[in-house]
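Whether sequence alone determines local backbone shape is best considered at the level of individual chains. Part of our work consisted of pairing the sequence of a single chain with a tokenised description of its backbone. This step matters because it turns folding into a mapping between discrete strings. For completeness, the protein is quoted in full, as a sequence line and a line of structure tokens:

_____
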Amino acid sequence: MNKPSRWIRSAAVIALAPLAFGLTALGSAAQDATPAATPALDCSTVEPVDVAFFGFAAANGFAQATWAGVQQAAAELCATARFFDPNFDSATQVAQIQDAITSGEFEAFVIQSNDGNSVVPVVEEAVEAGIVVVGEFTPIGSDYDSIEPQVEGMTSYVGTSIVANGEGLAELGIMACESLGADPCQVAYLQGFRALPLDNARTEAVLAGLEAAENVEVVASPEGGYTQATGLAAAQDVLLANPDVDVIIGSSQAILGAEQAVEDAGLTGQVALIGNGAPRQAVAAVREGRWFAVWADAETSAGKEAASVAIRAARGEEVPSSVDTTKLLPTPFGTAENLPEDFEGQWDA
């Protein structure tokens, strides 16, 4: 085996050591919220803050988990929040951000961008207009190996390095191969969308990590997407062409579909499954021994942190320039041994 990467070395310290997001459609423009929660502050003593949350899509479970956290922070910190729904369309999201700037209604933006490059110009406009901007999950800019803000004047980024996420998935794949004892170990990676820069950066990191390992052979890397249906179709093609595949990695939504393909092929228990992201269904699959692992995330906690940073910054408080969301759990390497006992996942696939 080649020299262990930063993730393997980190994993060893904690006894083996947060895209994954899903796709469905909804067409509303925005959702207002007045969460029922007891404020942590005396609201008469703080400046009101209106937060605009620009999520992937309102019908997406991952984005809804983020939104739940945003609402929690708003309720506790005497703020209001509104969800703008672009339905996974980057151009629509850019237009919504532009409109929100023009409206003058918001002191803070939390942006979960569909395309971190396309939103850069409107983020620059928002900063110029005096609006606090916090990026969440997707880096705003072209560097997917950093968690520092890439736009001058942007307040903070709350998320993880997409490249590190890909490297971590590769490490989980290598660990699965070692547990199986396969030589060579045949691995398939179901990448997200080739059209998305974020997915391309993750895919390159996954493949580079797997291909650098001894006794690991990448036999396929089709587009698996972010639904059970697309994962099922991609895995069926993989298994037809590579019936001896040992490990399949992909978004947790896609792996839920791949699990069905493995079962249909009569290979249950013979193929190690690894999901990117920790929806409740995937966490249960790991605990039950059906999957080898997930890349664990706590997305509601991440959304709450992003909104908290934005609200506090809008009130003039000092906030961190970045928050690494892999630190929200003891480790992102979500094997059965590593998952916290009380962690069930914070979103539904």
Notes: The chain has two domains: 6-17+163-295, 30-160+299-328. Residues 162-180 form the longest helix (19 residues). Residues 1-28 have pLDDT under 50 and may be disordered.
